[in-house]
Amino acid sequence: MQHLVLTQFGSPDTAVELADSPQPSPAAGQVRVRIEAAAINPSDLLLIEGKYLIRPKLPATVGAEGVGVVEEAGPDVDRTIVGMRVILLSTYEYGTWSQHVVVAERDVVAVPDADPQQLAMLTINPATAHLLLEQADLTVGDWVGQTAANSAVGRLVVALAKRRGLKTLNVVRREDAAADIRDAGGDVVLVSGPDLAADITRALDGDELSLVIDPLGGDLSAPCSTP
């Protein structure tokens, strides 16, 4: 089988090589998955560059997210799982940039038939957005504020908040990004600037933010935290 291998920390175009290896067989508690699609995340690129909090021993497999079909189950695994489409939990242990991966059965989750490219992106950003909204005791009508609202996680926060009946106040750096988030369902979208604190106060009209999600920090933190 073919798979990508990280041979050194550095630029992704030179640090990763295409390798051929024998097809792996699952041991007890494992399954072999034929990968259909694997995402490329910023965290993958940071790991390759040696800038991520995880630094694997080299050479190492790469790729955190992926979806595929279970082709073979280990001797003690229920064989009804064979043929199922599954996503791999993002443990950074397996390396999804590969044609086949052997993983622990506990680290796969069955998913319905859908676009594999969409399914391959389920385990990092959507889960992050969901868990962020779980950090506060929120009720219908509460306000959630966030910076970097046009990021992948930010867009998912908007979508998940709307499903829960929450309102979002979203801060971005550019007007074109603001238009995108308005189209995505953001209730209030503001472009950061010197009057951001006043803009937030005006938009909330006496309400308060029940939760602030701020991945940026710096100058934007204070206006969002104390409208």
UniProtKB/TrEMBL annotation:
GO terms for molecular function: enoyl-[acyl-carrier-protein] reductase (NADPH) activity. It is an enzyme of class 1 (oxidoreductase). Signal peptide: none annotated. Keywords: Fatty acid biosynthesis, Fatty acid metabolism, Lipid biosynthesis, Lipid metabolism, NADP, Oxidoreductase, Transit peptide. Coiled coil: none annotated. SUPFAM superfamilies: GroES-like (SSF50129), NAD(P)-binding Rossmann-fold domains (SSF51735). Its EC number is 1.3.1.104. It catalyses: a 2,3-saturated acyl-[ACP] + NADP(+) = a (2E)-enoyl-[ACP] + NADPH + H(+). One of its GO terms (biological process) is fatty acid biosynthetic process. It comes from the Bacteria. Residues 10-216 form the Enoyl reductase (ER) domain. CDD domains: ETR_like. Pfam families: ADH_N. Belongs to the zinc-containing alcohol dehydrogenase family. Quinone oxidoreductase subfamily. This is enoyl-[acyl-carrier-protein] reductase.
